[in-house]
Amino acid sequence: MNGTAPQPLLSVRDLRMHFPGRRARSAPVRAVDGVSFDVAAGETLGLVGESGCGKSTTGRMIVRLLEPTSGTIAYEGQDISRLSRRELRPVRKDLQMVFQDPHSSLNPRQTVARVIADPLLAHGSSESAARTRAAELMDLVGLIPEHMDRYPHEFSGGQAQRIGIARALALDPKLVVADEPVSALDVSVQAQIVNLMERLQKELGLAYLFIAHDLSVVKRVCDRVAVMYLGRVVEIGAKERVYAAPAHPYTQALLSAVPLPDPAAERTRERITLLGDPPSPAAPPPGCAFHPRCGRAQAVCRTEAPVLRAVATGERREVACHFPGAEPAASRMGG
Ligand SMILES: Nc1ncnc2c1ncn2[C@@H]1O[C@H](COP(=O)(O)OP(=O)(O)O)[C@@H](O)[C@H]1O
Ligand code: SF4
Ligand SMILES: [Mg+2]
């Protein structure tokens, strides 16, 4: 901790979500198992990892759609993880979420005006003020305000995601958790939505927790990136460092799957294929949970869980690995 650093906007510490097992005596699902990170005002933290590693659960706890099993979520210094609905009200408007599938997250029976105005009405706006604001928001996200009385199914996927973004912005949030906001969209539309989110961030000073399952999507947008594996953060740091010199074998494997823009480099790109599927979060392997898939694993990896720590003094990047380093253990990781 740096005594002179400003207080982060969001500070998550040792956050856990253990869902009850499917049967009465089965082990709980450790969807999120001790996650810590900060998000500063106006910055973007990318949160990446394979499907099922706990990204959505983390995002949903932060906006309090889910109550954490344990840990703290400090927003502007106040722990909001245990607040009641009523106590949460003044904070709720600052923390909003954009969902992966725009159409299924919009009520099909409500007009777009109503969808966007809903949070405003819930916070005491008059009908006419909410409608005026909805028109402004549509304009802000690149939709035609005259279309406000249409229904969500009349819009394309990309337009529907703009509606979801407009709704998230209705209450002037400071932090938006964007849960794979472009994963369900056509590739041609993805860049437009990413551009829109970047523009809105600059204009409105928003902070984003930008969730994605691979590192290519967040490469442009994020300032820092956190890589999750089986409910934990295994590497976190400045984007430039993590992309240029990933230190965790899992980050190296994820990065090796990202195509390179330079055709010559792309032809010789070394791909690290991960062995097998991720283990179940109901029965995580002992020690380092990545050890059954790691080509660098030693005996200690099977018994001792590595904790997140700085790779080098002075570097603001942390890695949870007993043998962190630049060596891309490609040949030993199968493929
Ligand atoms: N409501 C729930 N009840 C039980 N298990 C859940 C629930 N929600 C998510 N999970 C499990 O928690 C793990 C993490 O899920 P999720 O956070 O959705 O991962 P991601 O978003 O990274 O794909 C998965 O194994 C998933 O099956
Ligand atoms: S702790 Fe061991 S098993 Fe885990 S990632 Fe590092 S080298 Fe691999
Ligand atoms: Mg998810």
Automatic annotation (TrEMBL):
UniProt keyword terms in alphabetical order: ATP-binding, Nucleotide-binding, Transport
GO MF annotations, alphabetized: ATP binding; ATP hydrolysis activity
GO biological process: peptide transport; transmembrane transport
InterPro entries: AAA+_ATPase, ABC_transp_ATP-bind, ABC_transporter-like_ATP-bd, ABC_transporter-like_CS, Oligopep_ABC_C, P-loop_NTPase
Domain ABC transporter: 10-255
Pfam families, per the entry: ABC_tran (PF00005), oligo_HPY (PF08352)
KW Nucleotide-binding (keyword) present: yes
Record-annotated membrane-spanning stretches: none
Similarity remark: Belongs to the ABC transporter superfamily.
Protein name: Oligopeptide transport ATP-binding protein OppF
Organism: Streptomyces hundungensis
